[in-house]
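Design job #97: recover the sequence.
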């Protein structure tokens, strides 16, 4: 067998495995979200923790979704910025003025030291939390009116120490943010569901981390993660180390993408991919098979006929997966034209993630030092 023939066989085989993976992902997504939610409708006082940094498209609207809840217990909304002059601060002040009956607090900073600014922010404002249940979520999340009810009910199940949520993307800043959203919805979410289904992943995500105050204290508080890149994963692992479950109810949130350029999409997704590599270790290399369409494109270059057949199958399966995910969140659909572009970009990000050691996070350049630790080298803002 010649070298070219060997490459043709290799990429055709990888593309075929990728197609099988996409078929499995399609089934896994359907089954995961067919589960019934936990019985009951618990309502306990909660504090929502929202670390903020800079202005984002539709930030006020996104934050307001956490106030429009069908929930029968007191809710404190605690928003933290690193400095009083942060662009997010006026948005919170407008939110306070528009919702005078809601318990909204703006923490003006400063955050506590650490390379992970989000954890430094959370650690600084956590003493202001009034209630036993704490629900942390990223600034760019959007939720439905039953969000609090479902999260608190899941947290109230026996043996549960934390609750997190899957999410889809919604591009709010133009074409590139739509493509980035497609990478989240049609690639990230199905991969996460496959990991959950097979037991290969037990994720905890920044979309939501709900836990009780005593659980947070038992894992060292937010300050314990101030120099950790994958703070969400590390929090989930720490909760699991206590012998408690990190529950993931069958619901999806919306991630409001704000990327205005290819460079911004690249930095965002490279940071996520490098984080996954840091967490998954050698297993990250095996995730090459999740890129069925890109592998089929390469296979076509070496073996045009079988490669073209595999590419047609891969695209059909990718469109089916995207359509299935769109049914979960009709408010944030991924146009099918986005899928081929998003898939090729996701594959390029995967390749780059194999070697990258520096990432961009909210204007800071962070160096990955191993074992999930990071060091801030410089800041642009």
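Job complete. Output follows.
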């Amino acid at each position: 067998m010649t070298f070219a023939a060997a490459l043709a066989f290799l990429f055709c085989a990888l593309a075929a495995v990728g197609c099988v993976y996409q078929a499995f992902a399609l089934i896994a997504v359907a089954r995961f979200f067919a589960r019934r939610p936990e019985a009951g409708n618990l309502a306990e006082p909660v504090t929502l923790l929202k670390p903020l940094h800079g202005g984002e498209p539709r930030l006020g609207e996104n934050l307001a979704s956490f106030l429009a809840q069908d929930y029968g217990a007191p809710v404190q909304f605690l928003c933290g910025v690193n400095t009083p002059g942060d662009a997010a601060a006026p948005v919170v002040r407008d939110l306070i003025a528009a919702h005078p009956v809601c318990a909204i607090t703006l923490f003006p900073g400063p955050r506590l030291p650490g390379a992970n600014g989000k954890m430094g922010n959370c650690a600084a404002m956590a003493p202001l939390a009034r209630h036993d249940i704490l629900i942390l979520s990223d600034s760019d999340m959007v939720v439905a009116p039953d969000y609090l009810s479902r999260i608190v009910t899941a947290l109230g199940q026996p043996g549960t120490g934390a609750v997190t949520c899957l999410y889809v993307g919604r591009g709010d800043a133009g074409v590139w943010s739509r493509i980035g959203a497609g990478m989240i919805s049609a690639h990230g979410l199905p991969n996460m569901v496959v990991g959950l289904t097979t037991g290969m992943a037990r994720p905890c995500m920044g979309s939501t981390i709900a836990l009780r105050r005593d659980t947070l204290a038992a894992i060292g508080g937010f300050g314990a993660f101030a120099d950790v890149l994958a703070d969400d994963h590390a929090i989930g692992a720490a909760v699991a180390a206590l012998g408690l479950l990190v529950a993931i109810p069958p619901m999806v949130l919306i991630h409001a993408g704000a990327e205005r350029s290819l460079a911004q999409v690249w930095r965002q997704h490279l940071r996520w991919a490098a984080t996954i590599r840091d967490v998954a270790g050698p297993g990250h290399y095996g995730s090459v098979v999740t890129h069925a369409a890109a592998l089929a494109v390469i296979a076509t270059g070496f073996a045009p006929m079988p490669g073209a057949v595999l590419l047609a199958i891969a695209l059909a399966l990718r469109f089916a997966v995207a359509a299935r995910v769109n049914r979960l969140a009709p408010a944030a659909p991924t146009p099918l034209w986005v899928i081929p572009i998003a898939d090729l970009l996701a594959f390029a990000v995967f390749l780059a993630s194999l070697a990258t050691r520096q990432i961009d996070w909210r204007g800071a350049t962070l160096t990955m030092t191993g074992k999930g630790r990071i060091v801030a080298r410089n800041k642009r803002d």
